Amino acid sequence: MTRKVVLAGGTGFIGQYVEKRLTALGIEVKIISRQSPHIAWDDHQAIVQALDGAEMVINLAGKSVNCRYNEQNKREIMNSRIETTQILGNAILACEHPPALWINSSTATIYRHAEDRPMTETKGEIGSGFSVDVAKAWEDAFFSFSLPHTRQAALRIAIVLGPGGGVMTPFKNLVRFGLGGHQGSGKQMFSWIHVEDLFQIILFIQEWESLEGVFNCTSPNPVTNRELMATMRKVMHRKGGLPASTWMLNLGARVIRTEPELVLKSRWVIPNRLIKEGFMFKYGRLEQALQHILHTKS
């Protein structure tokens, strides 16, 4: 019998990577998306049919946070996460043979700005502000479902690095055009994860049936922003780069219609649960990850 996995929100950078890797393993991937020709979010019956008999559903859906936080965008960011999570939960309840595992995205930005100590699943302090409100509401919606036959895991995902897209494109451009110095103070922590390690975490949680709840999905070796940019310059063979002060970032963010928080917030997050469970990172060090990403054809 063909193995089947449902991938919700599977048309973005991470989703495309996960689909490609699952397909390479001989797994049939059903995608739920607002984009044709995939299963539509408002087609309840088709979603139930896709989920029925699937071994796992992975939800990556949500409007990009790379935008200005005006009222309309804030509403769309929140609703795109809550509504899709609720749709999936209700569809699982309607399944005759529900998936054994439901993995839902969350975000490592749920923790406070931290330059003093790392945040773990048990000792991390939840922050405040819009991004944190979204993360909390997202997880609340996910864990509000009581699913007797479906294990649930929320992945608090850090900045995902990988070949062919994601945040690597703007970082590469900054370095290429001589602007690859540190941003703001440069002391803010940068928690990150290679997209292949994120994929392997999904398989790891699926394999070990005792695993459920919240998991920090980050490399065990976060770096400062200053170290990030220095490593980027090293890997790209650039000797120097102009830094960007906080006021410049605030001004620039307005021009390119994004939020400076994406660069200035100090995310110092450690994957304590995964380490304790014995997960082994393939790309645990930033230079190692960047060497692979920047020298891999997408």
From TrEMBL:
Pfam families: DUF1731, Epimerase. Residues 5-208 form the NAD-dependent epimerase/dehydratase domain. Residues 247-293 form the DUF1731 domain. PANTHER family: EPIMERASE FAMILY PROTEIN SDR39U1 (PTHR11092:SF0), SUGAR NUCLEOTIDE EPIMERASE RELATED (PTHR11092). Belongs to the NAD(P)-dependent epimerase/dehydratase family. SDR39U1 subfamily. This is TIGR01777 family oxidoreductase. It comes from Paenibacillus nicotianae.
